[in-house]
Structure formats: C-alpha cells, structure tokens
Design brief:
60% of the residues lie in helices and 10% in strands. With 368 residues, the chain is of the alpha/beta class. It is globular, with a radius of gyration of 25 Å.
C-alpha cells in the first residue's frame, strides 16, 4: 500500500486524483478542482451523527453511523469507492480533517481487498496550505497590473502571456456590470482554491513575476483574496490604450456575439437567444441608478432595437449604438478619474502589441 500523504504541494502540483468522502453539503461549500465527491454519509445521516455526538459522545456517534450505513447501502458506497480506487491507482481519499471518516472508508475498502491511502489532515489542512500559497506569493513574487479603459482588451493581453494570473477566468466572469457568463460562477472557496493552484504550478515552473488585470475587490460575486487586492493598490501599472472604434468592436465581440453564442450552445437557438437578451437587458438595468433615468431609457431603447434586429436577421451592428453611448457617457469618465488617481504607478502606456512586448521584456528572469 502507498503511504498516507501530507505532501500537499506535490498533490496539487501533479493534479493527483482525489476522492472527497465528506457529505454533499460540505463539498458544495468548497472543494478542489477535479475532485469527486463520494460521501461516506449523506447530509441527513451526517446531521443525525453530529447531533448524537454532541448529546452522547463519540462512541455513540460511531455506533449510530455504522447502523445508518450498513447492509446494501454500505455495499453500494464501497463499490463506488472501489471503482474510483481502481480507476485512479495513484489517487487519495480524504475527509474534513483526515480523521474518522477517511479512516473508516480506508478500512471498508481494505475489507474488499483494496489498500488506498488518505490525505493526512484532510480538506482543512489542504485548504490552509492553499491559502498560505496565495499569501506567500503576494509577499515573495513580482506583480504588475494591466489597466485601461473598458474594451481595450486587457484580457487579450493576459492571454498572450504565460505568466498571467487570469482572475476573471478563475471567477468565470468578465469583471464589469455586463460580465456575467452563460454559466454560473464558482463559489468563493472554489475560486480561491483554483487561483492558488494556478499560482503554485506556475511558481513550480519557475515563474515568479505575474501579470494581473486591474480589478475591483469583487469579480462578479467572487471576492479577491484580501492580501492580493491590497497589493493591487500598490503594484506598478501598465496602461493599455486603443481607439474608441476598436473598443466598441471588442465589446461587441465579447458581450454580444460571443455571449449570445454561449447561451445558444447551452440552451438551443430560441431559448438561448431569449436568455441572452434577458441577461443583456438585466445588466443595463443593474446600473440604472448610476446612469440616471433619461440616459438609461435612451440606451435601453437602443439595446432593445439592436436585440430585435439581431433576432430577426442575425445582424449585430445596431448594438454599436448603445455600446458607444455607454462608453462615452458612463465608463470613460469613470475610468479617466481612476487613471488620474493611479497616474504615479503607471510605468508604461501603449497599444496592445506594445504592452505585450513591454511585459515580455519586463518579466524578471525565472528562477529554478
């Protein structure tokens, strides 16, 4: 049998397959990418055992657990664990603290002839390790932030660099009031775990200089780790520039053409378009108060007309009207103020190609 492990660095670096035997309610609150939830107890069983533990102690709780998960139910769960172990011979199992539950699963697997290791310390220890990984990176690594007006293509710049940290990618959100994707965002803990693993793997590859997109504290509903957000208020800034026309076309691509395609791929043409149109109108309504009544009404009418034409003929050109209005009257004045407030941190400004070239040149030599 392979030994139980507490080498969390190696586990996450190699993407080792893992089986999470916590209850579904625990798993839903936070998990690691690619991990399969095959619980020892379901939510109700766990609740009963927990109540028993508080009222009668550990031994009574263990006995209750055995009585709840027995016979055919036990056989079915052991069969699921066995199938995972056989399909993933290099994997591990874990529970919350690496204690009774994972030990019991190990014991029951051994009864059917399978020796399978567990992660010592369980989910709690691995989660703490990833939070430390995030904190250490902020203090030990070099960071530069890419800023710019809405639609300049900051994400496109990041995609051209292998030392990027794609916060919006991990959050599954484009970061603005219109940034919701067709699929849901991860939970806060899942977002943090995914980001930490990305950092860990890049650092293991010798990367110690990272490029980030300028973000507020929230990317959709995902909150940036406090240390990272605080760091982003002092990290050097590179400012991306583009023409209004270029920005309008990029927003049209990302927030209209590509987003519509996402919805239609998931829900079919008719329902997908209806959901896309509803999302676009909802995003505008979300900034109604900040736009003011007259301006909101005007942009709302332009958007409705553009959506009607898009549905009728697939022509998306009318969307340029509300996009240009929103940039000129709402986003640009706001970003111009932000640029002024951050001016002393700006170390370079230029077009997309110039910024990419600068960031590649700027990157510190990788360390082994």
């Amino acid at each position: 049998m392979r030994d139980n492990s507490s080498d969390y660095h190696e586990i996450f670096l190699r993407g080792v397959p893992m089986m999470d035997v916590r209850a579904p309610v625990e798993f839903s609150k936070g998990a690691f990418p690619g991990v399969l939830n095959l619980p020892l107890m379901n939510d109700l069983e766990r609740q009963k055992v927990g109540t028993c533990y508080k009222q009668k102690g550990q031994q009574a709780a263990i006995e209750l657990g055995h009585s709840l998960v027995c016979g055919q139910l036990k056989a079915e769960r052991v069969a699921q664990w066995a199938a995972f172990a056989q399909a993933n011979p290099q994997g591990y199992l874990y529970c919350f603290r690496g204690g009774l539950r994972s030990q019991l699963v190990q014991q029951w697997l051994k009864e059917v002839g399978i020796d399978y290791p567990r992660v010592l310390g369980g989910y709690k220890a691995m989660r703490s390790f990833l939070l430390e990984t995030l904190q250490q990176a902020v203090t030990q690594c070099d960071f530069v932030v890419v800023g710019g007006l809405t639609g300049t293509g900051k994400t496109d710049v990041l995609m051209a660099l292998d030392n990027r940290l794609d916060l919006e990618g991990h959050a599954n959100h484009r970061g603005s009031s219109f940034g919701k994707r067709a699929t849901v965002q991860p939970g806060q803990i899942d977002f943090e775990n995914s980001l930490a693993i990305d950092i860990l793997r890049k650092r293991a590859a010798g990367i110690d200089s990272f490029v980030l997109e300028d973000e507020s504290r929230l990317v959709g509903r995902c909150s940036l780790p406090l240390e990272l957000h605080q760091g982003m208020q002092r990290f050097p800034l590179v400012w991306l520039e583009d023409s209004l026309e270029g920005r309008v076309q990029r927003i049209l691509r990302d927030y209209v053409i590509d987003l519509c395609a996402e919805f239609m791929a998931l829900h079919g043409a008719e329902q997908g378009f209806a959901l896309f149109a509803g999302r676009l109108l909802e995003s505008l309504a979300n900034i109604h108060k900040r736009l003011g009544g007259e301006r909101y009404q005007r942009l709302h009418e332009l958007m409705q007309a553009a959506l009607a034409e898009q549905q009728r003929s697939a022509d998306t050109s009318l969307h340029q009207g509300w996009i240009e209005g929103l940039l000129n009257e709402y986003y640009d004045p706001m970003y111009a103020y932000q640029r002024e407030s951050k001016a002393e941190r700006i170390e370079f400004a230029g077009t997309q190609a110039e910024v990419v070239a600068y960031l590649r040149e700027r990157r510190k030599p990788a360390t082994a």
